[in-house]
Amino acid sequence: MDKALQLRSYISEHPNALSKVVEYNAATDHFFQLDFTAANKQLNLDDVTDTEKFGKWVNAQLLQHNARFGIGGYMENRTIYRRSALFDNYDEPRTLHLGVDIWGPSGTSVFAPLAGKIHSFQDNNHFGDYGPTIILQHDLDGLTLYSLYGHLSRTSLTALQVGDNIQSGQKIGSLGHADENGSWPPHLHFQLMFDIGDMRGDYPGVGKFSQKESLEVNIPDPDIILQIPPTTIIR
Q1: How distant is the alpha carbon of residue 230 from its chain centre?
Q2: Most exposed among 1, 145, 184, 187, judged by the fewest C-beta atoms under 10 Å?
């Protein structure tokens, strides 16, 4: 059985092990699916390079669709990363988004969806990077899973200790503002990995589109954990 199937099996057998990553009411709150591919003609490079303009566009989308959060991004081929040289490789730029983004107000609380422990954390303080980042490690009946939380507030890192146990549903941080989160409109980058090698407090959140199939093996769909009801998502 491949690891993604093992993860799905574990969740199926332990449905009560899951908690929400951000708090919402499925009966009343909505998520609007944001599109950052070339198909979105509303955004251009000038818009996304200017963080303030980019944030106003995101907020306008949420207001227009009466959505509490924006969402989207797993294995999405994004043109947005042209805003930062961080993602430019000479042979092929990294445009394939490997996690799910949840866009909302800075200060929004972020919770651990599964019990685990603090694997590592650091402030990836570069333009277009994660900013403050936490990685949790989860042991799921012998299956090791890592979950990454990027674009947090700096205060999210102040009380952490590597190895600390974390309970499902425990608050681990909050969304950072643009001055601290890598210069992005406030949002959470949530990503799952089965193997992160020797990396600490960081792991690529964007890859090469040509490597999509191999990346999917190690980086499963975060919706396996998020399980946001389709009825709450506006497309």
Answers
A1: 18
A2: 1
Only one residue has tokens 């999509």, namely 212
Q: What residues pair up with 139 in beta bridges, in sequence order?
A: 144
pLDDT digits (tens, 9 = 90+) for 139-191: 999 999 999 999 999 999 999 999 999 999 999 999 999 999 999 999 999 99
Q: Tell if the pTM clears 0.85, that is, is over it.
A: yes
- CA atoms of 59 and 212, how far apart (whole Å): 30
- Only one residue has tokens 């309970």, namely 167
**β-strand partners of 121:** 134
Q: Are 112 and 224 in contact (CB under 8 A)?
A: no
Q: CA-CA distances (angstroms) from residue 94 to 106, 136, 211? A: 27, 25, 10
The answer regarding whether domain 3-234 maps to CATH 3.20.20.150 reads no
